[in-house]
From TrEMBL:
PANTHER family for the chain: CYTOCHROME BD2 SUBUNIT II
Major place of residence: membrane
Name of the protein: Cytochrome d ubiquinol oxidase subunit II
Membrane topology, from the record: Multi-pass membrane protein
Entry annotated with the keyword Protein transport: no
Listed InterPro entries: Cyt-d_oxidase_su2
Family classification: Belongs to the cytochrome ubiquinol oxidase subunit 2 family.
Key words of the record: Cell membrane, Membrane, Transmembrane, Transmembrane helix
Subcellular location: Cell membrane
Membrane spanning stretches: 6-32, 53-74, 80-103, 115-141, 161-183, 204-225, 231-249, 258-277, 306-328
Gene source species: Echinicola jeungdonensis
Length: 338
């Protein structure tokens, strides 16, 4: 049953990146859109993510609950040594959600709309940044349980070049996914052209940010390339993500929106798989030891109950969630229609 729980954990992380990440990316796209296109982008973003943005945080909640119940040592380690970026991540999620609601449902349309817009777009940028920083820190080997001062124990592990580069990489992925998804939601040729251009730009930035991750890993002595080289399947996954780029760009040019979405999701999934599998069996790498999901798992009875709860819950919740997404994807998008 432990393997079932681990599978749910990784799937939750993947779906949060693909769905919740795209929601963050909508704010990132808005942040880097100027002029007359900003308002059109804002309206289309609201129509696209408005009904389901909060439901996407379910995946993060599931991942946290799995770690809390099934892998308490890992949960405790992250909560203690990375409490600063973790707290900033959660504050960003709350601030973003609050601003998103107020800027669309505030009864008075006044100067506070600028405040709401500011909070929404910058928290959309900073939240995935800290999500990536967390991910980069847990595989960097920089957490030092033997540290004797506050800076060394709670700041230096995550405030470093490699975690920051992973954070930037995560931001680029989120913006890339959002641009691809919004290309399919746009109704007018002008809007589709705008988001197609954004998708290609964010795709190129993601490739550059990925190169930055490898560069900072080498500079800091993190064996990222060596870990990837341990298993051929890692390079197959990365090659699949890379070789699908021309097909993705062709799909965007031909307005094959569903194929473009599938390909972008496949790319991100392959990248996440390669980076995750390269660390196997470790989940957190520290200076003095590493923690794997297998050796940090709770007792058999706990894992048995957690696995049964996840299986039963998926049968009840997932069909409703996918029907919700399907229902709102069937709505007409009339913003900017010509």
């Amino acid at each position: 049953m432990t393997d079932v729980v681990i599978a749910f954990l990784y799937l939750s992380i993947l779906f949060y990146l693909l769905l919740g990440g795209a929601d963050f990316g909508a704010g990132i796209i808005e942040l880097f859109t100027g002029g007359s296109n900003k308002e059109r982008t804002r309206l289309l973003t609201y129509q696209a993510i408005g009904p389901i943005w909060e439901a996407n945080h379910m995946w993060l909640i599931i991942a946290i609950v799995i770690l809390f119940v099934g892998f308490p040592t890992i949960y405790t380690t992250v909560s203690i040594y990375l409490h600063i970026p973790l707290s900033l991540l959660l504050i960003g999620i709350i601030a973003r959600g609050t601003a998103f609601i107020f800027r669309h449902y505030d009864a008075v349309n006044d100067h506070f709309q600028k405040v709401y817009n500011f909070i929404f777009v910058y928290s959309s940028f900073l939240t995935p940044l800290f999500l990536g920083i967390l991910a980069g820190t847990v595989i960097s080997g920089s957490i030092d349980p033997q540290a004797t001062d506050f800076i060394a124990a709670y700041i230096k592990p995550w405030l470093d070049w490699f975690p920051m580069s992973v954070g930037v990489f995560t931001v680029c992925i989120c913006g890339y996914l959002a641009a691809v998804y919004l290309t399919g939601d746009a109704s007018s040729p002008n809007d589709r052209a705008l988001f197609r251009k954004k998708a290609i730009q964010m795709n190129l930035l993601t490739v550059l940010a990925g190169g930055l991750v490898f560069l900072t890993a080498e500079l800091e002595g993190i064996p990222l390339v060596d870990n990837l080289s341990k298993h051929t399947i890692n390079w197959i996954a990365l090659a699949t993500a890379t070789l699908s780029l021309p097909l993705l760009w062709r799909s965007l040019q031909k307005n094959y929106h569903y194929l473009a979405r599938v390909l972008s999701g496949l790319q991100v999934s392959m990248i996440l798989f390669a980076l995750t599998y390269s660390q196997h069996p470790n989940f957190i790498i520290m200076k003095d030891r590493a923690l794997s999901l297998q050796n940090a798992a709770a007792g058999n009875s706990t894992m048995q109950g957690l696995g049964i709860a996840l299986l039963a819950g998926s049968l009840l919740i997932l069909p409703s969630l996918f029907y919700l997404i399907y229902s709102f994807q069937k709505r007409p998008f009339n913003i900017g229609k010509k």
